[in-house]
Amino acid sequence: MIGDRFGRPLGSLRLSVTDRCNMRCGYCMPNENYVWLPRSSILSFEELDRIAGVFASLGARKVRLTGGEPLLRHDLDRLVALLAARPALADLALTTNGILLAEQAAALRRAGLRRVTVSLDTLRPERLREFARSDRHAAIVAGLDAARATGFESVKLNSVIIRGYNDDEVVPLLEFARDRGLELRYIEYMDVGGATRWSRADVVSRADLLATIERALGPVEPEPSRGAAPAERFRLADGTSFGIIASTTAPFCGDCDRSRVTADGTWLLCLYADRGFDLREPLRAGASDADLAALIAAAWAERTDRGAEVRLATPGRGVLHPIERLKADPRREMHTRGG
Ligand code: SAM
Ligand code: SF4
Ligand code: SF4
């Protein structure tokens, strides 16, 4: 397995299959208009699978499909089947907003998808309508229930907690997850591209979350070390486990084995990276797998990215990119790079 300048392996790949979305979460897509990736630049399933295969040959074992909203990509189960046929990719997962999950869960499972994470930040349909401009709350809950019934190896819930939006739902969300046998992971609000309304004051930190949970539900114990996984895990006295992804106040770049490929084949070595490597151009120009592997290995060997740690150390931290910079290069958007 190859390592970067800090010895971090190239272990997991997030593949964004589309930059389109059927929601408009206030922390990700708050603006009125977006510049989309040109249709002709979007990689086919065969191209995405080939890229995943090259990463697997360099040691990657995990692939997570994301977006935009990945379930908007027609026949996504076909891509899942291609990836599932690669034994090296032992861990195949999906992050989705859940709206279309009820209708697709069975086909995705049959195709070989192992794990699903559904993003849901509020139990109140009217909040979803206001904050994410979606009236599909019931569809998301139905998607979660369908995923549970389908027999995935794990179904998780991701909730971004933001002051003044859903910080009064920290405990109800945990109870909702516990009642359904799901593991909840709280995500700190990040100042990534797209989060044009971000402010430090709106971040509900890991420390705030733990204090709120302990006040309501009693002592919280840390669970054993997480390795390269982003979530730190905790347990309540009744055995309920939950995670916190504290990318904003306690980043974990030191163990980061993740990189991401956008739907147009731009490879980003960090969520915060300003520029990526174009894999589409060589792919479509006839590069062999060995050529692609050499390009990727050479770039990874030079990787020094620690984006979230750099942001934490930035005095007067504000938004990462103003709207004009996002419009100038939509690959800076969170909904393009996939979270
Ligand atoms: N549309 C899918 C979904 O929402 O699950 C997949 C893509 S979305 C970009 C991936 C994850 O990024 C979601 O869990 C979402 O909540 C998270 N996310 C987006 N913007 C964020 C921000 N500013 N801070 C923290 N998490 C964010
Ligand atoms: Fe929300 Fe995911 Fe869509 Fe972003 S990509 S607006 S987080 S549903
Ligand atoms: Fe990895 Fe970059 Fe996220 Fe740090 S900020 S954990 S280096 S992707």
Q: Which helices and strands, and how do they pair?
A:
Layout: E1 12-16, H1 45-57, E2 62-66, H2 76-84, E3 91-96, H3 101-111, E4 115-119, H4 125-132, H5 137-150, E5 154-161, H6 170-179, E6 183-188, H7 206-217, E7 220-222, E8 232-236, E9 241-245, E10 258-261, E11 266-268, E12 277-278, H8 280-284, H9 289-301, H10 307-312, H11 323-328, H12 334-337
Parallel strand pairs: 1-2, 1-10, 2-3, 3-4, 4-5, 5-6, 6-9
Antiparallel strand pairs: 7-8, 8-9, 10-11, 11-12
Residues 21, 23-25, 28-29, 67-69, 97, 119, 335 line the site of one iron/sulfur cluster.
Describe this structure in words.
The chain is of the alpha/beta class and 339 residues long. The chain has a domain at 12-155 and 255-337: TIM Barrel (Alpha-Beta Barrel). Helices cover 33% and strands 17% of the residues. It is built from twelve helices and twelve strands. The chain has helices at 45-57, 76-84, 101-111, 125-132, 137-150, 170-179, 206-217, 280-284, 289-301, 307-312, 323-328, 334-337; strands at residues 12-16, 62-66, 91-96, 115-119, 154-161, 183-188, 220-222, 232-236, 241-245, 258-261, 266-268, 277-278. Strands 7-8-9-6-5-4-3-2-1-10-11-12 form a twelve-stranded mixed sheet. Helix 1 runs parallel beside helix 2. The longest helix is centred in the middle third of the chain and has 14 residues, at 137-150. The radius of gyration is 19 Å and the shape is globular. The two termini are 24 Å apart. The mean pLDDT is 97. It binds S-adenosylmethionine and iron/sulfur cluster (2 copies). One iron/sulfur cluster binds at residues 21, 23-25, 28-29, 67-69, 97, 119, 335. S-adenosylmethionine binds next to strand 3, strand 5 and helix 12.
